[in-house]
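Figure-free illustration: sequence to structure, shown twice.
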Amino acid sequence: MSGVAEIGPEQFGELARSLEAEVGKVIVGQRDVLRSALICVLAGGHALLEGVPGLGKTMLIRTLGDALDLQFSRIQFTPDLMPADIVGTDILEDTEDGRRQFRFQSGPIFANLVLADEINRATPKTQSAMLEAMQEKTVTVAGRRYELEVPFFVLATQNPLEMEGTYPLPEAQLDRFLFKVNVPFPDVQDLVNILERTTGVEPPQASKVADGAQVLGMGKLALSTPIASHVSAYVARLVVATHPEQAAGASLIKRYARYGASPRGAQALIIGAKINALLDGRNNVAFDDVAAIAHAALRHRILLNFDAQADGISADDLVDDALKAVPKTM
């Protein structure tokens, strides 16, 4: 993708509203889920959407791809999927002069927006093929390194781990997702609207409203948004408080956390808060912006111990504990 468009705050808001409106033509409700996915796209990060089958996770990501003028690719993860099916492989072919040589055949990971559908149905060996691409935006095959075109982001769906045929994602891979988003079941009115939209002759379609250069420009503007030092310090204290040995005043974390969020969690909080502020039409980052995206940024980075599983304590409970225990100012 060549070039980065110059985007100002006003155009940022217009493009963001247009994206949300286009996706809203197809997806009923799920505004918080869409907001989180949009933040990840604008940040150039990756999102993991978790929920039971049938909640529209795949449809939301595909619709977001329809609204963006980007190369879209879908990978359906299954137990028999191999790493080469994702990144590609060298194939032997005949040349015009009668010789044979290897040529790299790229896999579906070579796209701008990659839908990794039901990512936790593949084996750990296959899941590991995503690590380099998600962190370094490169792929190494047979000793050769290939650059992925920017923008590049993975939007993955995941079924709850208690469901049949799922494998837990490695902690190292989970940490590479900017956000983990829980997709809730729709309420009665949303379900009625879903039925009205999806059981007719012509289901609605989203139109393209932004291209890669504009997405990169929106991300550049977001990263350049200033953040006050006291807000950054609050983010640092919040992440430190997720560690049981550092959790001053956070009783649930001391009791139920095995390990806290990584420095990537702090980066996710800062970047997410900046974009959330811009999406709300503000050029300054507030404490409320941090709180708005704290669960999505931290829930997959806090490792629970056996007591938490036995007592039915979730990572969201520990994030709530940290938000209550950590003072906004010192």
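We now fold a second protein in the same way, so the two outputs can be compared directly.
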Amino acid sequence: MNVKVSLIGVFDMLKFRDLKKNRAEMIASAPAEPLPSTDRANVLAQRLHPKVQQLKIAEIVQETHDAKSFILAPDTDKGSKELAPFKAGSYINIRTELAGSVARRTYSLSSSPKEALEGKYRVTVKLKEGGFMSAWLHNEAKVGDSILATEPGGFITHSSIRDCRRIVGLAGGSGITPFMSMAKAIQEGSEDFELTLLYGARTEADLVFKADFDAIAAGCDKVKVVYVLSDEAKPGFEQGFLSAELIKKYAGEEPFSVYVVGPGAMCDYLDKELPKLNLERKFIRMERTEDVYDAGKPVDYTLTVRYRDEVFTIPARSDETVLTAFERGGLAVNNKCRVGYCGFCRSRLIKGEYHANRYEKLRLGDRQFHYFHPCCSYPMSDMEIEVYSK
């Protein structure tokens, strides 16, 4: 009878037995020069994921009657030399102080990844009625002003592992900005996928980047743009709302993924339309640019906030998020996405009640131990909160 005996385990044990001796020999034979003062992996990590980016406004461009683009560059006066790179579709969270309050808002980058390597970000902001940051940017910000920004991040970026090669983009309002970045990246060759964009607006005058999209689509067969107007009928434009029927008309027969970026009302409508496409859930990605909660007549509440070893008492309103109350109270609580996805503002509810939007992403353990996301939660009573973000 032939018997085969494996010696793999024996050899592994011999290696383990000699491990200490081999390490000692390697240490003894190493050169006497000191180790580098910085590790290359740490340098790369800092380049890709800076704790903060010191930026300044280099240029302001009026795009439409209610939209402006802000070209941001490294603030060399504060030691900043370069911008963190990003994938097309990413956003940054910018921060400044306004009237004694901390103001932080998230804006998708409308520039391409290549432009970041050249030292330029572009964010495009529509003026929002009652907006805190948008009003300052539109009415007061000027070239040379300094602001802080987080590293880029995002939920709407293309992955060849997860997504189809063909992407159908659905954009409304300021949700057009990440698709401008994608279209540029495809044109430049830094991204390799096909984009069919359905861009919805009230009127032609409300369309941002129309000339830019038309120029890209004319010279790049991987980008196609369809404009959809809800409040006027014009030749060359679709009329109505973004819908499953319209997606089927332009998506073609090949498999496709859907990216949705736009205001809450548009996303709520598409939540009912997209199931008609019978797509796997992984092929649908949605990012809300805003989520307005109808709380009825505003009610005033008080928040007791345990933050950085101190206790603060600040006012809050039922029609504003808990995070907005933090900022108006001068508390610089970490946040990025501001729609309940990223988890940066994750805090613990000690006492009180709140209403959270249904898109909030919470782990089961978070729910069990009363963690929540202040960025998408509206107070429904006085609250006591412990904040962990630094």
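Summary for the second example: The mean pLDDT is 89.
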